[in-house]
């Protein structure tokens, strides 16, 4: 008789797990809280779905997952994801290493996965919320409660995701409690791939500023990102900022833990709530491609022509106007002040600020605007097949586990990697 596998959550990880288990001959039931499967997939990659990335490495994932990622990715990596898509009829293309469906539409992936679920005869039940998993006596499998219904299964794959994404994705972190009830440790959660918030009063208003820059966090030594940074009156965002955000959220939250004043893990609170008054400093370098020598040369050249102009006229010649306004205000110099012949050193000091613009960060934006949740079910409590050590027969996949990747296809890759490994193992 074929094995009965129940998968809870029909996102990227859950549908992948269900498909892999069914392809191995298991009889699969797929429960989904939403009415439709794969809602979040349709929103990914700005509607284009960045499936994975040719530049794949364990270092693209959170620190606590890295030592396990090499093995996981060996078992189901980038080329496996591309082949999996091909098996669904989805042709992919690489844009400088970032892999997208050739159709340019995320909905292609959502539909193709669900078509395969139906083709394989997987029983899909929408509008069913997983509530409880009870292990039956030795070898008898599990009783699963979902929205008032009771199901029996030999193996259960929990794929209900984390807390990130708009409300319509139903990402409410339901299974953190379920995993805990089955003896698994759940690491504190924070929003990641999300904007950083600031109360600084002198940040550019309205649409703000978009500039290529390096961003680092003064208090966290080993992180620095390059790319287009957006600064508005609310704080900073853009890809390089998103890449730093998980570490910042954790740092601010951990600071609270030290002071014994930390919000409960996996509550719906934001990173800002958890920060409770802690701050870090984002340091922005608006001349990231300049060596120290080239920057000095540029400064000399500009200041040599500056006498008689206003400070803002000089600064407008080298960078965005609104950044110049902010720097002059921080230096206590009026925009219309004339640069005198003997002010050249003072002007050079002002220009030096472009490499060190400090913005005080009070927290990160909320889960609804984040792309991924950092934290979750500890990998220490999961085997190489992502099976629970404390409750064998239960598997944890996707964002629910303590794995989060950089922006650029790494999180969907994890959803496919974990879904595939657990789906095949559960069917055995
Ligand atoms: C706006 C946005 C853009 C993104 N873009 C990209 C991108 O381009 N590339 C990339 O790699 N990553 C991207 N991500 C991240 C990526 O989408 C997620 O990491 C990935 O989809 C997680 O897959 P999952 O299956 O683990 O969870 P989810 O996709 O969240 O799926 C979980 C499913 O479980 C269901 N569910 C929840 N609770 C229950 C319950 N109790 N019972 C039954 N069902 C339940 C949910 O309704 C949902 O359908 C993006 C995220 C967002 C929010």
From TrEMBL:
NCBIfam families: aminoacetone oxidase family FAD-binding enzyme. PANTHER family: OS12G0638800 PROTEIN. Keywords: Signal. Residues 1-21 form the signal peptide. This is RsdA/BaiN/AoA(So)-like Rossmann fold-like domain-containing protein. Residues 4-424 form the RsdA/BaiN/AoA(So)-like Rossmann fold-like domain. InterPro entries: BaiN-like, BaiN-like_dom_sf, FAD/NAD-bd_sf, RsdA/BaiN/AoA(So)_Rossmann. The keyword Signal applies.
């Amino acid at each position: 008789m074929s094995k009965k596998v129940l998968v809870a959550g029909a996102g990227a990880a859950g549908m992948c797990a269900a498909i892999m288990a069914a392809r191995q001959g298991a009889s699969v039931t797929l429960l989904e809280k939403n009415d439709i499967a794969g809602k979040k997939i349709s929103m990914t990659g700005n509607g284009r779905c960045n499936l994975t990335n040719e530049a794949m490495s364990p270092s693209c994932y959170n620190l606590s997952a890295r030592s396990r990622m090499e093995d996981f990715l060996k078992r189901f990596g980038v080329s496996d994801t591309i082949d999996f898509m091909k098996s669904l009829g989805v042709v992919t293309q690489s844009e400088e290493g970032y892999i997208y469906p050739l159709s340019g539409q995320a909905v292609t992936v959502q539909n193709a996965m669900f078509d395969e679920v139906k083709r394989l005869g997987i029983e899909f039940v929408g509008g069913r919320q997983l509530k409880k998993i009870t292990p039956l006596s030795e070898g008898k499998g599990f009783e699963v409660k979902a929205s008032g219904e009771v199901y029996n299964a030999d193996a259960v794959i929990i794929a209900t995701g984390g807390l990130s994404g708009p409300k319509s994705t139903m990402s409410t972190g339901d299974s953190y409690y379920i995993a805990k009830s089955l003896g698994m440790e759940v690491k504190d959660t924070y929003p990641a791939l999300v904007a950083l918030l600031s109360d600084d009063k002198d940040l550019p208003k309205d649409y703000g500023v978009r500039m290529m820059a390096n961003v680092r966090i003064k208090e966290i030594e080993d992180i620095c990102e390059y790319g287009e940074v957006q600064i508005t009156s609310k704080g900073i965002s853009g890809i390089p900022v998103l890449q730093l955000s998980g570490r910042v959220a954790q740092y601010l939250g951990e600071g609270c833990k030290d002071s014994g004043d930390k919000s409960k893990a996996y509550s719906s609170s934001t990173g800002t709530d958890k920060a409770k008054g802690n701050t870090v400093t984002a340091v922005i370098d608006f001349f990231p491609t300049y060596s120290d020598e080239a920057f000095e040369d540029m400064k000399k050249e500009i200041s040599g022509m500056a006498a008689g102009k206003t400070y803002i006229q000089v600064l407008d010649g080298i960078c965005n106007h609104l950044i110049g306004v902010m720097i002059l205000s921080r230096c206590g110099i009026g925009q219309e002040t004339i640069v005198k012949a003997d002010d050249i050193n003072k002007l050079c000091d002002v220009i030096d600020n472009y490499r060190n613009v400090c913005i005080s960060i009070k927290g990160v934006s909320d889960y609804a605007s984040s792309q991924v949740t950092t934290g979750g079910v500890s990998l220490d409590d999961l085997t190489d097949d992502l099976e629970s050590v404390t409750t064998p027969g239960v598997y944890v996949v996707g964002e629910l586990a303590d794995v989060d990747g950089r922006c650029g296809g790494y999180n969907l890759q994890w959803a496919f990697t974990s879904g595939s490994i657990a789906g095949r193992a559960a069917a055995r």
